[in-house]
Amino acid sequence: MQARDYSANETLRNGRAVEIRALRPEDRAGLLAAVSRTSDQSLYRRFFAFKRGFTEHEIAFYLNVDFVGHVALIALLDEDGQQVIVGGCRYIVVQPGQAEVAFAVDDAHQGQGVGTVLMRHLVAIARNAGLKELIADVLPGNTAMLKVFRASGLDIKTEQEPEATHLVLHLT
Ligand SMILES: CC(C)(COP(=O)(O)OP(=O)(O)OC[C@H]1O[C@@H](n2cnc3c(N)ncnc32)[C@H](O)[C@@H]1OP(=O)(O)O)[C@@H](O)C(=O)NCCC(=O)NCCS
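Above: query sequence and coenzyme A SMILES. Below: predicted holo C-alpha cells.
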C-alpha cells in the first residue's frame, strides 16, 4: 500500500473501532476542529509554544503532505454516526534515513490507546520507506508520549537536554 493511500482498522482497548489513515487535503475542517477541542497544555506539548490559531501558511504546511519527506496519519472514531478526527501523527524527514515525529490526540480521547496505535502504523510506514531512525523531543512531565514511544518496542536512546528529552528510536 502506498503511504498516501494508507488505511487500517483497529480496535482500542475499550473495544471501540478506530480507523488510522493517511491525512488528505479535504481533512482541513476536521483537523482544525480537532485542534479546537485540544487543550492549551496538549497543544503546548505538541508545538512547544502556546498555539491557538494557525496561519494559512501553517495550515497548508500541515495539510499538504507529500508522503515521502512528510507523512501524516490521522485517527478517526465514530461519534454519533460521524467519523471524527481525534488524533494524528506525522514524520518529517530531517536528513537521509532520519525523520522527526510528532503526535497529538484531543484531550477527551487521550489514554485510550490512540497514540500507541498511531505510533505502530507510523513505524510501519517509516520502515517501509527505508528510514533508519525516528527522533523526537519530549517536554518534561510528558509521560504519555514517553509511554507511547516505549510501547513501540523500538530501541530508544534518550538524551536529557535543558528544555526537553531528546529521543532517538532505532528502526533497524
Ligand atoms: C502524547 C499523546 C499523543 C499520547 O496519546 P494517547 O492516545 O493519550 O496515548 P495512549 O492512550 O496510547 O497512552 C499511552 C500511555 O500514556 C498514558 N496517558 C495517556 N494520556 C495521559 C495523560 N493525560 N496523563 C497521564 N498518562 C496518560 C496512558 O494511560 C498510557 O499508559 P499505559 O500504557 O500505561 O496505560 C497524547 O497524550 C497527546 O496528544 N498529548 C499532547 C500532545 C503531545 O504531548 N505531543 C507529543 C509531542 S512529540
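The radius of gyration is 15 Å.
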